Structures are given as structure tokens and as C-alpha cells.
Amino acid sequence: MELIFWLSLALLAYAHVGYPALIAARARLAPRPHRRGGEPTVSAVIVAYNEAARISARIENLRALDYPSDRLEIVVASDGSSDGTAERARAWEPDGVTVVAFETRRGKPAVLNDVVPKLRGEIVVMADARQTFDTRALRALVAPFADTAVGAVSGELILTSGGATHVGEGVGLYWRYEKFIRRHESLADSTVGATGAIYAIRRALFAPVPADTILDDVLIPMTIVGRGYRVLFEATARAYDRPAATAPEEFRRKVRTIAGTFQLFARNRWLLSPRRNRLWLQTVSHKGLRLMSPLLLGALAASNVLLVEAPLYRLALGAQLAFYGAALVGALTRGTRVRIPFMSVPYVFCLLNWATTVAFLRFLAGRQRVTWDKAAQ
């Protein structure tokens, strides 16, 4: 029981604290600089499903970017929309916007497989209809491609109004923590995946992915890593979005993302091979161990209860109970503006681990779809 307790505690500590410290130290001691500059031709692709209400504003946002218009191709790919998304997008065709309308909804990966090989730009920028780009985002996003060793670049997603509720506050803190890790992975070598809302790849490096892939924004960049290129994180290439306003909304998002991570590892075993994946340590530490967190938390609690006779373990059990008690308080005040210090982090941590458990069950049952039903605005 002592071995189980200390091993579980060590792995949890490493996954959530030790690895971020390790990658930050590696980035400081052995950074890998890269060249910047240039204005390559760019194709910005928006894959949209029933986005009639905001597709025009999204196109306006892309057309207003600080980038030469004669070097920017904007393509809207409607994935079986039934609300007039394609028709509204076609109003922009006289301004050079290309609209590709698919009759049936298949999911983003299938659309990308069809559209990307036909694009004109040297660089392909993946975008969603939901977010907006900062004016200089595109210029910042493509600048690292001046280095021929760079195959993909991820921008930074900025979550606005993060402190309105415990959920929003906790998600905002979690996202800043996640970006800290990605920034230092990029400085050391490459990030594990990209931010789906804003990332770019060399068109020549795109390879079709299975149509039911859930995390195309991880599989596509990691396939590029597998070909010997770097995937960078560019913090000055900013997209803006709001965090989840409610616990159910964040829960649905995370279940889908985590189910996609299970799918990723099950199908791409090379990611877990230190001989085939040069980012093996980052992949296992950043993605793999997080999938084990619910199991490790359960083992830690169970072994602690069985060891409770010893004073040290009574203290440890008290700390666990206090942490879960704080999470409960956060749950009871979720969706409110009641501000109790430090409640949001335990609550969101437990929410994400419960999402991991549900995601694993959905993955086993094959119940997680590639398509995504957006939250109401």
C-alpha cells in the first residue's frame, strides 16, 4: 500500500508540476531559436457547420488582417450546413472569398482532406467560425516559416471574461497553465499538437487523416513532427474566444477532447515509442499521464485510507479531504458570482478528471462522434 501511495503521488506530482518545471528548465538551458520573416502566400480555411449567424463577421475579420490581400486566399468550407451558411458566405465571392459547400455533414477532418490539397497558398491556416483573430495574428503566425525546419505553428487562444464564474475562472487559470507548457515545449523543440482555433502548416506537408479523427489539431502537427519538422507555439499570433460559461459546457468540450486523445494513442502507437517519436517524453508527460490521473487519484485515496493508522498518512488523508471539500464548495457555487478564494482550481481539476473518466468509457464504447454540436451563444 505504501508503494502504491507514493508511486501514485509521484506520478501525479510529476504530471502536473514536475514536467512543467522540467520543460521550462530545458527551454532555458538549451533553447532552439528559429528564423522569422517573409510574406508567404497563405490560404485561410474556415470549416463551418450552421454558422450563418456569424460567418460574415468572421470573413470580415480575416479580410481586415494586416497581410497583403494578394497573398491571402480565404476559403469557407461548409460541412453540410442547413441554415444558409454557404449562401451567406457566397455574398463575399466578389471580394475573392472561395466557398466550398458539401451536401452532407462529415466532420472537419474529411473536409480538410478534400479542401487542403486544392489550396493555392504555401501556408495553410486553420480557423474556426467562432473565434476572431487579432489584426497582426496572421503575420505573426506565418513568420516562423522563414525557417525551413518549421513545419507547423500554433497561435495563442486568449479566453476573455474568465473570472465571471468559478468555471470560467478555473478554466482561465488552466488555460494559462497549459500555454506555459506549450511555450516552453516550443522553445526546447516542438509542442505536442496545436490550438485548433489558430494554427498553420506547410501545405506540402499535409497528409490526409482518417475521416473520424477527433483531434485533427494534434494528429496533423504530430505527423509533421514525425517527418522531422518542428511545431512551434507563437504567442503573438492571437485568437480570441470566451471560456465555457457553465460546467456542462466545459464538461462536454473536455470529454470530446480527451476521448480524442484516447483515440490518438490507440491508433498511433508510434507516439508512445521513444525510438519513433522524438517528442516521446513530451507526449507521455504532457498527454499520456493526464489520461491516467483518475486512476492515480483513486489509487492514492484508496491506499491512503488503508494506511490511515500512521500519523503521516492521517495528515495526507486530511489534505485530500480538504481538497475535495474545496472542490465540492466550488461545485455548489458554480455558475454564480460568489467569489470564494481558491475554490475554482480544485473544482475544475475534479471536473476535468471526471471528464477523463467519461471520455474513456465513451472511447471504449465508440460513442464519441467526430462532429461537434456547438454551445448556444
Describe the structure.
The chain has 377 residues and is an alpha/beta fold. It has a domain at 42-245: Spore Coat Polysaccharide Biosynthesis Protein SpsA, Chain A (Alpha-Beta Complex). Helices cover 48% and strands 14% of the residues. It contains 12 helices and 8 strands. The chain has helices at 2-29, 55-63, 85-90, 108-115, 137-142, 166-188, 216-226, 247-267, 280-291, 293-306, 311-332, 344-365; strands at 42-48, 72-79, 98-102, 123-127, 132-133, 150-159, 198-202, 230-241. An 8-stranded mixed β-sheet has the order 3-2-1-4-7-6-8-5, sandwiched between helices. Helix 1 (2-29) crosses helix 10. The radius of gyration is 22 Å and the shape is globular. The N and C termini lie far apart (49 Å).
Write the layout of secondary structure elements.
Elements: H1 2-29, E1 42-48, H2 55-63, E2 72-79, H3 85-90, E3 98-102, H4 108-115, E4 123-127, E5 132-133, H5 137-142, E6 150-159, H6 166-188, E7 198-202, H7 216-226, E8 230-241, H8 247-267, H9 280-291, H10 293-306, H11 311-332, H12 344-365
Parallel strand pairs: 1-2, 1-4, 2-3, 6-8
Antiparallel strand pairs: 4-7, 5-8, 6-7
Write a brief caption for the model.
The protein has twelve helices and eight strands. The chain has 377 residues and is α/β, with parallel strands linked by helices.
Query: What global shape is seen?
Result: globular
Task: Work out the helix count.
Answer: 12
Write the CATH fold name of the domain at 42-245.
Spore Coat Polysaccharide Biosynthesis Protein SpsA, Chain A
| H and E order | HEHEHEHEEHEHEHEHHHHH
Identify the CATH architecture of the domain at 42-245.
Alpha-Beta Complex
> Can you give the mean pLDDT?
91
Helix and strand content put the structural class at: alpha/beta
Helical proportion? 40-55%
Strand order of the largest sheet: 3-2-1-4-7-6-8-5
From the alpha-carbon coordinates, what is the Rg to the nearest angstrom? 22 Å
* Ends apart, CA distance between termini: 49 Å
Q: CATH superfamily membership of the domain at 42-245, which one?
A: Spore Coat Polysaccharide Biosynthesis Protein SpsA, Chain A
Low-confidence stretches: none
CATH class of the domain at 42-245: Alpha Beta
Main sheet record:
8 strands, mixed
How many beta strands in the DSSP annotation?
Answer: 8
Percent strand equals: 5-15%
